[in-house]
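[job 0412] stage=fold_complex status=start
inputs:
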Amino acid sequence: MSLLNASGCLDALVAPEVAKTLDGFVTKTITPLPREGNAPPRIAETAHGMLNAIGLANPGRERFLADHLPRMRELGLPLWISVGGFCASDYAETCAALSDVQGEVEAIELNLSCPNVDEAADSAAEIVAACRTATSLPLFAKLSAAHPDVGEVARAVAHAGADGLSLVNTLRGLQLDRVTHAPMLARGSGGLSGPSLKPVALHAVHACYAATHLPIVGMGGVASAQDVIDMVACGAAHVAFGTALFADPYAVKRVREELAVVSFDDIFASAHAVTKPRVFAA
Amino acid sequence: MPRRERLSVVGVERVGEYALLRLVRGAIDPGLPGQFFMLEAPGRVLPRPLSLCLAPSSELHFLVDPIGPGTTALAELERGDAIHVYGPLGNGYDLTVPRPLLVGGGIGMAPLPYLAEALRFPPAILGFRTERHAEAAVLMPGAEVVVDPVFVTDVLPHGYDVLACGPEPMLQAMPAGAQLAWEAPMACGYGACYGCAVAIGGELKRLCVEGPVLVAA
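[job 0412] stage=fold_complex status=done
writing structure:
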C-alpha cells in the first residue's frame, strides 16, 4: 500500500520535504494549455471541511514536460501524473506525450471529475477508451461520488480499459458569507473536501471495489491512521491525503508512525472488510 | 523547512476590539517581520495565517481580530491550552531601507510592532475605524493615530520608504515602491493549495510563497 497526496494538494517543487514523506507524488492536473485558474477568493472553510475553486491552475502540457517533470524526477519518488482536459482527445494527447517519457511515470490519473471547470462533453468511459489506445502506462480514473450509481461508472471505465480508480474527487458545494449572504468563492460553488467527505468516499470505494475489484486509491477526509484503515477496509489499495496536508504538512509522517504500531492482519482477521489489505510498508 | 510545534498559551489579553494571543516560543524561529505563521484554530479544519506581532524573549505574540469562527476560537484560548504553530512562512519586509515609515490599517497593524523593533522605532501612522479599535495603538508607542473618517492616506507624508499592512483599498493607495503585506484566505501557507492567489498588477500571485510582502508597482 502506498500513501500518496491527492492531486492539487501539494506542490512538490515548493515543498520537497513534504513530498518525500509520501510513497509517490501525484501532480496537479495538467491540461493541454496553461491555465491561470479561477479568480480569487478560491477557498473557504466550511463547518467540517473546506471548499476550493482553484480551477486547474497549471503550466500546460508543454511546459510541464519540459520544465516541471524533469525537476520532479529529481525527488526520486514514483510520479503519478494527473491529466485533465475538455474532450477525449485532450486527455489522449497528453497520455501519448507522457508515454514518450515512460520511464519517469508510475501511473496516469485521469481527472474525469473536477467540479470547478466546465465538464468534458465526452463520457468518462469514452475518455478512458481514448487514453487506453494512446498509452500502455497504468491508467487510474478519478471519479466523482456525485453520480447516483458510482459503481456503474466504475464498471464502465473498467470496461474501457482503466487499470485502477481514484476515489473520490471533491463534491460541489456552496458557502455563503455570514454577513452579506453572497457566495464566499468568486466562482460561486467549489469542491468540498475534508472530514465531511469521508463517509461519501468510503461508500464510493466500497461500491466501486465490489463492482470492479480494480486497485483503488482511496481519498476524502483522510487525516489519521484510523482513516487509512477504514479506506483499506472498504477496498482501497492505496490511500491519499488532501485537506489534511493543508492543516499539517507532516500529516503523512505522523500517520505513518501511527500505522507502524498496528497490525493490519490483526485488524482484518475478524473484520467484515471487503478485502484483505496488502502488507503496509512502514 | 519551517518547524511545526505545539505551543502552550501563556495568556490572551484584550487590546481594544482585538486579542493579543501570547504563546510560549518553544523552538520556533520568530522569523523576519512580515513573515507569518499558521496557527491551529481549535475545532476548525484549517489553521489561520497570522503575522507575528511581537517576539519578547521566550514568547510569540499574535494580534487576533475575532471576526469568524477560527479567529474567535483563537481569541478564546486560555492559559494552559496548546495549539500547533507552523512557520515562519513567506517573505517578510526588506529592512534595508533608508527612511522607513510604517503604515497600518486596522488589524493590518499586526506585524508592525515587531517591524518597528527591528527598525529601531521609525515613524508610524495607524488608522482605525473606531476609537475602540484604536486602543490597539498601545502596542505601537509614538505612532500617529487617525480614526475614521480620517484615513492614513490623508496624513501620509512624502519622501519615505513606506512599509504597510492593511485593507486592500489602503494598500492600493500606497505609493510606488512601497512594501505591502497582503492578506488572502489561506488553507496551507506553504504553497500546496493555490488557494491564496490574488490578482496584483494583472497577475495572480500565490501570497504564501511570493508574498505576503510585495513591492507596489
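[job 0412] summary: The mean pLDDT of chain B is 96.
[job 0412] exit 0
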